[in-house]
């Protein structure tokens, strides 16, 4: 069955997200926007810009750099921050490794995805951030489907699915106890298509890896992995050049590419509507077990 | 594109999760890898069919017990509109989750097991949908395959339901009865033709044609101020705008307004949305409003039009649903949050608790426990600018927050 594509962005979603961002700025003392360089956090930056215009965005961006990012993402991040005049804080997973707080994974599936939680929690503590704004969406994954818009985390950053505060109407309760902090998800109700339609409507720039390009890849477990110095490969995994693009921006060690010729936003959107693999299906970190996401959330992951 | 929000409520095993799975499946909203994961998970459970309910029961505990314990949000879209389903548990222990899911819904979807007919939970679901004045009610009589697709059985259930409707306080609800089989997909998104005596729409057809609720636009204009935007840059040196989301009604440039609680009057100079200047702002739109005069307004204040000013209330009577393990105690002080405005509030008295099955009022109660619904009287430290919920729902609801542990303990609607 072929989908008819609806190119129209539901405006109600932007109004809701702006309302949430304004509540976050008003109810918390030190909010921070978690920025990954991916399309969801780029969307958040746009929403923040709109929410406080003509004033400045009243909170900084925080990027947890795993050291395994696509160079294109880092380049884009710096360009965006400079162009919009935003404050950016960068914290490195490498520092957490050097401090002996986390240990690098080994083997061919080694990634720094799980490690970044420690760096993130340290950065939250160091910056005394009481609200961390993230671009997670409920349609991404079934544990995320149950997350609140203001999601309270304890001192260890843990999410307790059974003890969540009820959220009623559009009333947001951001009151917390000392040591707790809140994860804020303004685009909870957006789907992947909504995000793309928004990027299209707002004419937003995005990192080049979202568009089809040729690069060195290897094939493993039926997925195309970007070949890089960070990826541990076996002797029979020989890199080859292929035209691909990425549906999400994660680390080079845990984000798989999809074969694609889409080099325009419209083509990407059309491709998503036809897609046979869901967005997180290309995230190797979720495949570890059926409850992978819920377990990482309990441990303070986004 | 419009967004239609639906709340589903059903009993533990009346096939609600299967119904939602069916809606996603039939609107082609399940990607292939999720479908494969579903097949595999169903097989592991020893099922010989694909269990579509596994799509929505997201948490580990739920998968283990085979029940739904929280509110899950599910998204699908057709070329016509975007749908958000708040899927809530049906059991009495989760009444508060049901209220949560229903609070944002325009459609309430009630499932009835054709074999069992109307049960205690049906009463509770209907009561909540009616209490929160959800405009549309889709009553799906499910598992028709297990009663041999009997028309007589369906008619009997419809007739029983009419008695529930007769006892309801909110009469304007539009109700639609649909005989379905979610397991086989009959009358969910498609028609297989087995139920040939039913000529009405499928559930999806019905949802597609619901007139989008514009009611809020006709209600009195209310604009709570979320923050004051003062850039103090060279370019915007004297700019002073009020950021907020229109709760209800609409504002036009040039309208005369009053700021509450100060009572100062002015006129709307501009309505702005980022770099755009708008002629008007409608319900649920996030905008920045600037005024002709410098008036003293800040977060928590409300701009309203001079032709319809809400009463400034310090004593309110409300229906509430209690949502906390610790009981509500008469005489205790809580924080009341109406929209974005927070004030201290003391519970004066508990008027009555409602038996949501028989609708009987039980008087003389000194406390209210988890999931209880009832009427209380509160006194607030500062006035709030709320409307009666029945007259303007968007400006008639509030939550109560426990001052000591900061959790949300109740939701209320003004009566």
Automatic annotation (TrEMBL), chain A:
Source organism, top-level taxon: Bacteria
UniProt EC number: 2.7.7.4
Gene3D superfamilies reported for this sequence: HUPs (3.40.50.620)
Molecular function in Gene Ontology: ATP binding; sulfate adenylyltransferase (ATP) activity
The UniProt record lists the keyword Nucleotide-binding: yes
Top-level class of the enzyme under EC nomenclature: transferase
A GO biological-process term: sulfate assimilation
The entry's keywords: ATP-binding, Nucleotide-binding, Nucleotidyltransferase, Transferase
Pfam family, one: PAPS_reduct
Keyword Protease: no
InterPro entries in the record: PAPS_reduct_dom, Rossmann-like_a/b/a_fold, SO4_adenylTrfase_ssu, Sulfate_adenylyltrnsfr_sub2
Ranges of residues in domain Phosphoadenosine phosphosulphate reductase: 31-256
Family indicated by similarity: Belongs to the PAPS reductase family. CysD subfamily.
Protein name: Sulfate adenylyltransferase subunit 2
UniProtKB/TrEMBL annotation, chain B:
An annotated GO BP: sulfur compound metabolic process
EC class name: transferase
Keyword field: ATP-binding, GTP-binding, Nucleotide-binding, Nucleotidyltransferase, Transferase
SUPFAM superfamilies given in the database record: EF-Tu/eEF-1alpha/eIF2-gamma C-terminal domain (SSF50465), P-loop containing nucleoside triphosphate hydrolases (SSF52540), Translation proteins (SSF50447)
Database matches in Pfam families: GTP-eEF1A_C, GTP_EFTU
GO MF, one example: sulfate adenylyltransferase (ATP) activity
EC number from the UniProt entry: 2.7.7.4
InterPro entries for this protein: CysN_GTP-bd, CysN_II, CysN_NoDQ_III, G_TR_CS, GTP-eEF1A_C, P-loop_NTPase, SO4_adenylTrfase_lsu, T_Tr_GTP-bd_dom
Residue span(s) of domain Tr-type G: 1-215
Name the record gives this protein: sulfate adenylyltransferase
